[in-house]
TrEMBL record:
Coiled coil: none annotated. One of its GO terms (molecular function) is DNA-binding transcription factor activity. This is DNA-binding transcriptional regulator, MerR family. It holds the Pfam family MerR_1. SUPFAM superfamilies: Putative DNA-binding domain. InterPro entries: DNA-bd_dom_put_sf (IPR009061), MerR-type_HTH_dom (IPR000551), MerR_fam (IPR047057). Keywords: DNA-binding. Residues 6-76 form the HTH merR-type domain. The keyword DNA-binding applies. It comes from Lentzea albida. PANTHER family: HTH-TYPE TRANSCRIPTIONAL REGULATOR ADHR, REDOX-CYCLING DRUG-SENSING TRANSCRIPTIONAL ACTIVATOR SOXR. The keyword DNA-binding applies.
């Protein structure tokens, strides 16, 4: 257990829902804001800050942001102050894409809800006729 020194890759996998393989992939792809430290025996040791960053990246990825765009955002963060406008642009563009996705999903939900209602009414009418026989 590494809790007093940091988190093991297994602990981070458990807390984020990512596989160990995915964590290694994120590290290799330059998605982590800071280089992961190595503990005794060369094992990865993650900080709470690494965990928080990963959780944000997971949300960006879940919402459809491509890995190269997450990497671009991460690179800007690594560079430090002075590029906040570029970071803002990346996030605003993604925000707009997510808004569009949500609108499309709402249309899908409306259609599905309507179809469920139609079928529910139909099934209820069959049940009512069966009870009346």
């Amino acid at each position: 257990m590494l809790d007093h020194m940091g988190l093991s890759i297994g602990q981070v996998a458990e807390r984020t829902g990512l596989s160990v393989h995915a964590l290694r992939f994120y590290e290799k792809e330059g998605i982590l804001a800071h280089q992961v430290h190595r503990g005794p025996g060369g094992r990865r040791v993650y900080t709470d800050q690494d965990l928080a960053w990963l959780k944000m990246c997971i949300m960006l990825r879940m919402s459809g942001m491509p890995v190269p765009e997450i990497r671009r955002y991460t690179d800007l963060v690594r560079q430090g102050d002075g590029n906040e406008l570029q970071r803002l642009d990346i996030l605003k563009e993604h925000q707009e894409r997510v808004r569009e996705q949500m609108a499309q999903l709402q249309e899908c939900m409306d259609l599905i809800t309507h179809k469920v209602s139609v079928y529910q009414d139909y099934v209820n009418s069959i049940d009512a006729r069966a009870v009346g026989q």
